[in-house]
Amino acid sequence: DIDPTQITFPGCICVKTPCLPGTCSCLRHGENYDDNSCLRDIGSGGKYAEPVFECNVLCRCSDHCRNRVVQKGLQFHFQVFKTHKKGWGLRTLEFIPKGRFVCEYAGEVLGFSEVQRRIHLQTKSDSNYIIAIREHVYTGQVMETFVDPTYIGNIGRFLNHSCEPNLLMIPVRIDSMVPKLALFAAKDIVPEEELSYDYSGRYLNLTGSEDKERLDNGKLRKPC
Questions:
Q1: Are the C-beta atoms of 51 and 41 separated by less than 8 Å?
Q2: Which part of the chain is the SET domain (predicted)?
Q3: Is the pLDDT assigned to residue 208 strictly greater than 60?
Q4: Among 8, 97, 123, 205, fewest CB within 10 Å belongs to which?
């Protein structure tokens, strides 16, 4: 019930030793990244994405700590280009190894009422960039984060949808409970390849046959 922007994380006290599970308070769920800054166990067939917490501004570890990846921003060269049928798109100009952080889906973080207001104001000709991320907690609670890059955003707004994407979105928390919507390479990506992710969030999530045919407002879901 507390505003997530008001919940800040205490920093770890790792000074003489590197940040490691068991001693670093930021790594209670295990290590997030390997020695090459790649997200661990990506696409390993797990039933859910584990929480990712990076070291933050209150941590005593250095900026070279390997638990600081998303906060460092873009590390590759990208290009916004005109696609044949999908409008604008985004592609990489260099090789991206599987598991590496690509970019954040950045924008205004909104409350539910403001999201509804903006959606109601949209016309058929307007592009909808608002994304809703739902995180399911073990207690049964569902945490929702709404991000709108329509007016304030980054290159993430040019990413197109694919049912066989090369990116995977993971909520990453650094300084507060408000997550960064971080996109990681789900496989090795070659230069000039278009970058995409699954807007539905189903990529690499286990779904049953019943879920695939579930009705939405009395209508079958649109096939991809």
A1: no
A2: 76-200
A3: no
A4: 123
CB 50 within 8 A of CB 40: no
Domain parsing of the chain, residue ranges: 73-197
| Stretch (H or E) spanning 210 | helix 209-212
One-letter identity of residue 62: S
Query: How many residues are there in the chain?
Result: 224
Tell me how far apart the alpha carbons of residues 169 and 101 are, in angstroms, rounded to a whole number.
10
C-alpha span between 110 and 116 (Å, rounded): 10
Strands 196-197 and 160-161: parallel
Cα–Cα distances (Å) from 212 to 115, 133, 137, 206, 209, in that order, read: 27, 19, 22, 11, 5
Do the beta carbons of residue 168 and residue 204 sit within 8 Å?
yes
Hey, what are 81's tokens? 């280009």
Return the pLDDT at 115. Answer: 95
Pick the CATH number of 73-197 from 3.30.365.10, 1.10.3470.10, 2.170.270.10, 2.40.50.140: 2.170.270.10
Residue with tokens 């295990």: 30
Q: Minimum mean pLDDT among 7-16, 134-143, 212-221: which range?
A: 212-221
Q: What is the pLDDT of residues 40-95, one digit of tens each?
A: 877 555 556 778 999 999 999 999 999 999 999 999 999 999 999 889 999 999 99
Please give the Cα distance from 87 to 161 (Å, whole number). Answer: 12
Q: How far is CA 206 from CA 43, 47, 155, 171, 202, in A?
A: 11, 6, 29, 18, 8
Task: Say which residues have a Cβ less than 8 Å from residue 57's Cβ, sequence separation at least 6.
Answer: 11, 175
φ/ψ of 116, rounded to 5, equals -60, -40
